[in-house]
TrEMBL record:
This is Uncharacterized protein. It comes from Nitrosomonas eutropha. InterPro entries: DUF5995 (IPR046037). Pfam families: DUF5995.
Amino acid sequence: MSTTRFPASIATPARTIDDVTHQLTAIIEWSKQNNSRTGYFAALYRKVIIQAKKESRKACSMTGHA
């Protein structure tokens, strides 16, 4: 496993679901470049976040909330 540190932008607290998605994508890319298994969890979690966002949008449209 790599001992290279994550870029600071990945460690910045996320404020939105889109921020989380972007950070997870950055972790996945970092993991590929550094031959790190850290990206496995990030890839799975990213899929879950994207699906949760889709379901949230669908629920909001069904209830009339923005």
